[in-house]
Amino acid sequence: MRGTDDASGTLFSYVDLEKRVPSKHPLRLIRRIVNDALASLDAEFDTRYTDFGRPSIAPERLIRASLIQILFSIRSERQLVEQMNYNLLLPPSPGSACHPPGHPTT
Length: 106
Hints:
Number of helices: 4
């Protein structure tokens, strides 16, 4: 079952994380391009997942996390999760306003 890619708003944050990134920062353009590309793949993602079972992590979030890993030269998924837990210099977690809890890596 396909997980959702809903943003959680400012549920656990007192600072508007949109204000942390300058308006002309290249990450904003990259995020817009990536979001448009992922929106165009939405129907394709739907065909790859079943309608029942335990929800997965949304493929859009996984792709955004991989992109952050590449852009910030983070060597492994384990290091990415560790960096997202404590490094405020990284952009907000993919698609949400707060950093996600770490998930087990393989």
